[in-house]
Amino acid sequence: MENYFRDDKKDEKNNDKNNDKKDEKNNDKNDKKDEKTNYNIFQEKQLEVADLLELLQGPCPIDGSIIIATTNKLDEMKVICPALFRPGRLTPIEIGHISWKYLQELSVYYFGQELSFTPCNITISTSEIIELANACKLFGLGDKFELFQNKLRELLHA
What pLDDT is recorded for position 52? Predict the structure, then answer.
């Protein structure tokens, strides 16, 4: 005897499975197509220092703009592209280490008290000091200020 009753739920499940497989195949094809058509311009050509010069004096005027650029290799940059440092382009400004006065202000800001060790020559970057203060404040156990002060003293060899 033939079964004249269809199981609609079973048919729906089979159709869903088949549609999912088709969608996966189409997505894979689209992904491969995107990989061929989308490319990163930085992979094609490495940006060079001379490109920065072109950006500064290129076809779109940027009069009245202030551009801030940072580097740890200023002397090398001056050798590689001296044109960047001609009058009216980039003016080097050296920002040295934090002073003892501002280190004390930083300590008061983070911990509410000044450092108690003897002032010394600061030889580490301000960003390192701030990272240390944040780490001590957020993750330090016990007296967070003492932890900061002791670690800072170690770093400064004070």
Answer: 77
